[in-house]
Amino acid sequence: MIPISDIQTTAETLMAKAAIEIPDDYLGGLEKLADTESGELSAFVIRAMLDNYKAAEEDRRAMCGDTGTPRWYVKYGNDARIEGGPAALEGALRRATANATHNVPLRPNRVHPLWRTDHDNNVGINAPEIEYTFNPDGDWVDLITVHKGGLFGSDYRMLFPGDGIDGIKRFFLDTCVAFGKRGLACQPAIVGVGLGGSKDASMVLGKQAACLRTVGSKHPDPKVAALEEELRLLGNSIGMGAMGFMGSSMVVDCNIELGYCHTGGMPMSVHMFCLSSRRAVARIYADGRAEFRTDPEWFTDYSRRPTVEWAAEGAPQTEAAE
Amino acid sequence: MTESTLKTVTLDLPVTTEDLSKLEIGTIVYLNGRVFTAREGVYKRVVEDGQKLPADLGSVNFHCSPAAAIEADGTLNVGAVTATASFRFAKWLDGWFKISGCNVIIGKGGMTSEIYRQSFVPNNAVYLTTVGYGTGALLGRGIETVVAAHWVEDLGLAQAIWVFDCKNFGPFLVEGDLQGNSLFERENAKIAGNIEKLYEGTKSATLRRYGETDDKTDEVI
Ligand code: SF4
Predict the structure, then answer these.
(1) Domains of chain A with bracketed CATH
(2) Are A249 and A42 spatial neighbours (Cβ–Cβ below 8 Å)?
(3) Taking CB atoms and a 6 Å cutoff, what residues make up the pocket around ligand 1?
(4) pTM here?
(5) What digits encode the pLDDT tens for the residues B101-138?
(6) What pLDDT band is residue B214 in, cutting at 50, 70 and 90?
(7) How far apart are CA A47 and CA B81, in angstroms?
(8) B84 and chain A: CB distance < 8 Å anywhere?
């Protein structure tokens, strides 16, 4: 049984870590772009950001003044039991969000959409969002917090099979250009693409692809992985760098996630995880011990399973292109 | 990465029209002196409802909600500060300049050169953009003293007026100069030709969106 107090303390630590420490994979990706950026203004912006991450860690202050909308992803091992059950877990995550908002401090971003009521703690109706996934074994629970910024940089479109791969590329470009101008998306970004599902599923998958996969990760289907690479290069060939200045640094990496969709359609979403790509992860074991990491390991063979039954270990578990 | 030829200047606040007239778009700027935050909540109160501004705010208006907390003993704790997108505030600016006497706006994303010519140029004001835009920790470091937080009770922490005394506060880039030129528009124009080429030969999506345009020089702001 995982003690609920360990859930809350770990969650508070995660809130601070996400806000202050830029994940290594994103940092490495940005440094690579810095090496090849020839646009003077874009290169200056990237250098300033690299200085900024250092300042944040040295001062233990948030890297960006805009907290985005802090949220939680929870992965349950099949044998995990939490003291007080799922309701206690949600209570702990809400308390941790409120406490960290005051203690780090983080900007209290969350307000009522109509009355603009602000509780000054990033907690309110349906906030923070908590999403769940499950693992077929394990007595642990993974807590992941993501502080994704951005009023800009996400879009959805219902494409059709006839639009084909070209249609996907064009909508990808549309989104990069529209929100890349003036740097509204705070690029270079991890661009997540959700393909398929229904409209809501496509949005969820694209956002998770941006926020819950690391820079350098590849989709297990080699053809999808090739499309990820193609889109990354396409984004960097626009001629637009950081803040929309002339340059070549738009996309740090592109991640695609898929879901089966209506036979007539091909819904697509695009999400950009910004220069403050904030995520932090911990696995909490039955004895309350926490192990911290930055890779959410959210997508697994199990979560991407194409079959009715979950095949036993060793069987082919992902579906490659035919 | 090539060596930079960008110019850097440090300005002591308050700044005169003459100082501002020397700023060119694309110049890197650091500020010493007093800066205050104000955004839509404040603009609405002051410009529309005619409320009087608190005294001693200085003349640099930062479009920002800080990551900040007020402790039980009243201590003001400011961590990171990052700008918020400015184009949403354009409609209040002419009135705001006249009432507040500000001549520098700091924000995110700039405005259009049309707005600069309408509202900034006649009021001898320039627009500085923050960088990144996520340089919240660097800017937080530049705040020496948090002087005051006004209207917190009515407007909340995010929309309140925060007054900062700053040292080496930056970096910023000159986005809108005293002539009303925009750095972003200059850069957009440089990129436009390549974007046109990228799209060449591609066909629009089967299902159009109402009001959609194919003009790639268009902007979303
Ligand atoms: S998009 Fe990201 S980097 Fe930009 S202001 Fe928001 S949180 Fe900060």
Answers:
(1) 4-19+63-149+279-293 (3.30.360), 151-273 (no CATH)
(2) yes
(3) A 64, 66, 68, 149-150, 186, 274-276; B 82, 132-134
(4) 0.95
(5) 999 999 999 999 999 999 999 999 999 999 999 899 99
(6) confident
(7) 18
(8) yes
